[in-house]
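Tokens as discussed.
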């Protein structure tokens, strides 16, 4: 299967999973999804693939859905809940980093076959995870802050806090640009050539740009749903 088609299928499946999680488990479900995806994305980002004529890291689609999740939470449950989701993601990343480091301390059995592969795979994990922790915090807090700045602006312009959701979602374009630039430099600077770094940066942001445009209707759908765990916040005001 071509990488391009596989990436498109993964995007559709993950966006559908976010909506299903929101419908069935509400706010708590999205927070659990966010924790899981942040950890998995930090593993998948170790892989390089070619798609759409560019060299790129995997993990971009997974990371993009964390912005979708915090935007849905911002839209339906408010900035405090969105920041709580970010805190959980940061905590999960830190715990995974600590556990991954302890794996390297064990003396393997003579019959062990997995340890060499695990050690090779996670050789760069401390640097990547440290970069991820810093960049994830900066970009997500920026996204939440911008989202609600845009919300104040759109509400003042229209008098209706529910209108111009698509414009509020433009905050993601800015925060993902910051995310892409900082993570590429901190995580991969010195590991790859300047040409590869430029390709990774460009391809990552192009993917984020496309995903940001695609996730706007998903946020509209999420807002129209009635999750079984009702949100605490609607239309710009707490209940």
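Sequence:
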């Amino acid at each position: 299967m071509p990488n391009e088609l596989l990436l498109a299928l993964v995007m559709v499946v993950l966006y559908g999973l976010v909506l299903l999680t929101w419908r069935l488990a509400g706010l708590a479900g999205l927070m659990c999804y966010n924790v899981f995806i942040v950890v998995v994305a930090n593993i998948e980002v170790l892989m390089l693939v070619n798609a759409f004529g560019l060299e790129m890291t995997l993990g971009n689609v997974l990371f993009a859905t964390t912005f979708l999740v915090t935007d849905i939470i911002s839209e339906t449950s408010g900035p405090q809940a969105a920041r709580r989701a970010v805190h959980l993601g940061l905590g999960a990343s830190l715990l995974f980093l600590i556990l991954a480091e302890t794996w390297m301390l064990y003396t393997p059995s003579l019959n062990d076959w997995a340890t060499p592969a695990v050690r090779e795979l996670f050789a760069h994990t401390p640097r990547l995870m440290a970069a991820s922790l810093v960049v994830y915090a900066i970009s997500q807090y920026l996204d939440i802050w911008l989202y609600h700045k845009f919300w104040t602006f759109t509400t003042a312009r229209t008098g209706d806090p529910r209108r111009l959701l698509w414009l509020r979602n433009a905050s993601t374009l800015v925060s993902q640009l910051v995310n892409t630039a900082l993570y590429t430099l901190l995580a991969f600077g010195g590991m790859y050539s300047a040409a590869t770094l430029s390709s990774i940066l460009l391809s990552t942001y192009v993917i984020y740009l496309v995903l940001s445009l695609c996730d706007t209707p998903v946020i509209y759908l999420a807002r129209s749903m009635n999750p079984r765990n009702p949100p605490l916040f609607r239309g710009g005001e707490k209940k």
